[in-house]
Amino acid sequence: MNMAAEDAKRLGIADGDWIWVVTPEGKRKGRAVVLEGIRPGVILFEVGYGHWGYGASNYQVAGKRVAGDKVRRAGIHLNPIMRRDPDVWQMALMDLTGGSVVFYNTRARVERADMAKDVAYA
């Protein structure tokens, strides 16, 4: 989770610390990457990691368990906590002009994770 150095300093977060990204839809935990040059108040993240599909999750075929691939599952997956369309179940808002998913306007807050309390979520 890339964040502005100014925000990290204000929140007492160091590069590599575990943090929570919290939205009205839920929360996800990841490691802080503190960078200069990011606008304060903005969180940046790469899309495409922490899959649930594409062979990442366990599933059954004809009653036989097929184990998911941990490498495909690795990383943080923020789609579930992004702002969603209130009229379409589990659908992210769409930009009507460009037709892409609107990841750019989800309000979130960042909290430093308390590892003693939050270790189960690591």
TrEMBL record:
Pfam families attached to this UniProt entry: Molydop_binding
Keyword annotations from UniProtKB, A to Z: 4Fe-4S, Iron, Iron-sulfur, Metal-binding, Molybdenum, Oxidoreductase, Signal
SUPFAM superfamilies associated with the record: ADC-like
Domain (Molybdopterin dinucleotide-binding): residue spans on this chain: 3-56
MF terms in GO: 4 iron, 4 sulfur cluster binding; molybdopterin cofactor binding; oxidoreductase activity
Record flagged with keyword Signal: yes
Keyword Iron-sulfur: yes
Record protein name field: Molybdopterin oxidoreductase Fe4S4 region
Classification of source organism: unclassified sequences, metagenomes, ecological metagenomes
